[in-house]
Design brief:
7-stranded mixed sheet, alpha+beta, 6-stranded mixed sheet
């Protein structure tokens, strides 16, 4: 049993601590603030709920008030639209209550929580960590075999990191009143974009994402410059008579990637490792994903040191891929506004947008084609050995490589792809292929995988082996 110390009890720190305890390690979770605390990031993307369930922490969404998002008003490049999600997958939470529930969930997994406590000094000696803590005014010493840094952007400040997006500042304030917007709102302005979030506790958070240099150069106080930007926006349209709660605040929101994300006895998680553009509204999801994979990487480093290089390579590649994927996605999103509005704010953020590849994914195939068109494996498909998560450790597995896939894919919907495809008889329809997999998975799952393979050019018409589209 290794002693693991986790610094920072946000979503990344709590999920990592819980998973390491479940894997049989002795875990200390150190947090300098008392909970509940005020924290940005109240909007949770749909992937958060299943990720918490996989970590056994789904009760964090039951233990406090949660609003499920059905409608969002969007004023972006195509005018004002009401976007609906009948499945209500997006969530809005009170982050103070949410983070507190995650801490309690980690504690129920056997994690010892040290709070409030601040790390005042950390040193390595003989391959172990020695941490000096200020625990609510008392000085304590803690020794650990492994250190996880999950202290958010503050932990990444001053460290070696690569900026992956245009400089961005998030300026925000909370409101209370009889009339407040009841649905989230997102809007593109001339030189900023805005986000309004009605919270479960009856308050409303309004945010402006601005260029820090031009914003700070403006006249007046921080609050006045903020209100001037918000004047006439959709975000504050229904806030007449509302009053601000507390001061207007500003925090850095620039995306970046830490250079020193992993070592043989240390790891960075969440925003301490990777910060993505806030336009995605999936920062919490990305933090939890880094914690889940990071726990397997750390477990490999501690219990299978011979595989240390493989584990560290996997984690670096995973963060690099996530950073690049989100960077391109954000640039594409900003480009839609830059194309019609122009201006340095939008054009700077659209740089490095996705360059369309010569071979594009096929148009989605319809059900009749799935049932009737014989297909076979594209001649461009190949299988390569790649690092991947294998149970409780990082291992090596055969992965599918294809020009239309951004990275090799070892698993799809939890199924290893190589065994499904290596001996695939040619000339079968996707429906017949799915039926042939029925001893491994339900027919519905097989059809979903076959459809994905067809739509990404991996399975092609038997009359066109070289990657042509199925039609």
């Amino acid at each position: 049993m290794a002693r693991v110390c986790v610094v920072g009890a946000g979503p990344a720190g709590c999920v990592f601590a819980a998973r390491m305890a479940q894997l049989g390690h002795e875990v200390r979770l150190i947090e300098q603030e008392r909970f509940p605390r005020s924290q940005l990031g109240e909007s949770l993307s749909p992937g958060v709920e299943p990720l918490l369930k996989s970590a056994g922490l789904e009760t964090a969404l039951d233990a406090h008030r949660v609003t499920r998002v059905r409608n969002v008003w969007v004023a972006w490049a195509d005018g004002l639209q009401l976007r609906e999600d009948p499945r209500e997958q997006g969530l809005i939470v009170d982050r103070g209550a949410f983070d507190l529930a995650l801490v309690e969930g980690a504690r129920s997994c056997g994690v010892k929580v040290v709070q409030p406590a601040c790390v005042v000094d950390r040193r390595q000696s003989g391959g172990r960590w020695r941490l000096a803590l200020d625990v609510d005014g008392r000085r304590e010493t803690l020794e650990a075999d492994f250190l996880a840094e999950a202290g958010g952007r503050a932990a990444a400040s001053g460290r070696a990191r690569v900026q992956t997006g245009a400089p961005t500042l998030a300026v925000y304030a909370y409101w209370r009143g009889a009339r407040l917007p009841s649905t989230p709102r997102i809007e593109a302005g001339k030189d900023a974009w805005f986000w309004g979030v009605p919270l479960p506790n009856g308050t409303y958070n309004s945010l402006a994402f601005v260029d820090p240099k031009t914003f700070r150069a403006g006249p007046g106080s921080l609050a006045q410059r903020f209100l001037d930007r918000l004047a006439g926006t959709l975000v504050l349209e229904d806030c007449r008579g509302a009053e601000r709660i507390g001061p207007t605040r500003a925090i850095e929101a620039t995306s970046y990637l830490a250079r020193d994300c992993i070592g043989r006895n240390a790891i960075r998680l969440g925003d301490a490792a990777l910060a993505i553009d806030p336009i995605s509204s999936s920062g919490v999801q990305k933090a939890i994903q880094s914690a889940l994979s990071g726990a397997i990487v750390a477990n490999t480093l501690l219990r299978r040191p011979a595989a240390a290089d493989l584990a560290m390579s996997f984690y670096r590649a995973q963060l690099n891929d996530a950073s690049e994927r989100h960077r391109r996605w954000a640039a594409d999103h900003y480009r839609t506004v830059a194309a019609t509005r122009g201006g340095p704010f939008w054009t700077d953020r659209s740089k490095g947008r996705r360059v369309e590849a010569s071979a594009q994914p096929s148009e989605p195939v319809d059900v009749r084609a799935m049932a009737a068109m014989p297909v076979e494996l594209s001649s461009e498909a190949a299988f390569v050995e790649t690092p991947c998560l294998d149970g409780e450790f990082v291992g090596v597995a055969p992965a599918l490589r294809h020009p239309r896939l951004e990275t090799p894919v070892a698993y799809l919907a939890g199924r290893a792809l190589a065994p499904l495809l290596k001996d695939l008889p040619p000339g079968r329809t996707p429906l017949q292929i799915a039926r042939g997999w029925s001893n491994r998975m339900p027919l519905e799952s097989g059809l979903a995988i076959a459809g994905w393979l067809v739509n990404h050019g991996v399975l092609v018409s038997a009359a066109d082996k070289d990657g042509g589209r199925l039609c």
